[in-house]
Amino acid sequence: MTSDFRGASADAVATLTGELETTVSGSPEVAAQVSGDLFSVATTLRGEATLRRFVTDASVAPQARQGLVDQVLGGKVSEQALGLLRSAVGRRWVKTRDLADALEHLSVVALVISAGDQASRLADELFEFAQAVKENPSLRDALSDPARSHHDKARLVDDLLAGKALPATSSLVVQALGGSHRTVGVALAEYQKVAAEAQHQGVATVRVAHDLPEHERTRLAGALERQYGRPVHLNVVVDPSVLGGVRVEIGDDVIDGTISGRLEDARRRLVG
Predict the structure, then answer these.
(1) pTM of the predicted model, to two decimals?
(2) Rounded distance between C-alpha atoms, residue 164 and residue 41, angstroms
(3) Are 62 and 90 in contact (CB under 8 A)?
(4) Per-residue DSSP letters for 45-72?
């Protein structure tokens, strides 16, 4: 999501991320509370066009925008969240929607922080749930059915993940149901990128015919880290159609060392 911001909006997100990290450092409970508050305000801004335009209007004095935030949200969100919101509306935004998108982004970062040293597990669980949604049409339909209430969908997520996943994972999946992304799968993929970025990692999707043992995962992660200059979190997808070898997708790069890839390349050469 950070790559979607430009100019002053990108600068604002970077500054606010630093402020968030300082505000919730060392307190998972505060981080989780701030996350919920920020996401709730993001949802409100998307539904209230007049409020959204006012708090992002550069012609209005920052003090006036901050005063409205105090008036509307004082006592309704935590003091930590209110401080971040006052800082956010006091900044310049390239597009009016950027503020709400930034608050959603910050809410994800806050939940990643709340996971502490289990942030890597959080990223894995987000990916695994996204795969489950992709591979299970009935689950995908249940989570995207406009006739079902958000509360009903959130209860389904809780039933599926309670006792099996981190609280931060469950919270992010529920947020994915009502965030700015067009599908739950797209939201979870973006949230996992944010989780990786918070740990200064990249994300690679690895397709193999059979699951990789731990030592091979470690070796592959090490090779990718050397190539890209930073740690890389692996999302391993078992796909029998690749036949053998490994296909790695990281950003816009594709490294195809699969048997199926080589066969397809050979077929193209013969035809062409």
Answers:
(1) 0.81
(2) 29
(3) yes
(4) HHH-HHHHHHHT-TTS-HHHHHHHHHHH
Q: What is d(CA 126, CA 172) in angstroms, rounded to the nearest whole number?
A: 8
Tell me, what's the pLDDT at 83? 97
Helix and strand numbers, DSSP H then E, in the chain = 13, 4
Distances from the Cα of 92 to the Cαs of 63, 103, 110, 200, in angstroms? 13, 14, 22, 26
Each residue's pLDDT tens digit, 87-102 = 999 999 999 999 999 9
Give the percent of the chain with pLDDT over 70. Answer: 94
Cβ-based neighbours of 159, under 8 Å, separated by 6 or more: none
Q: Which residues of 80-96 are buried (b: 16+ CB within 10 A; e: fewer)?
A: bbbebbbbbbebebbee
pLDDT tens readout for residues 103-115: 999 999 999 999 9
Q: Tell how far CA 23 is from the center of its chain.
A: 20
Quote the Cα angle for 97-129-41, to 5°. Answer: 25
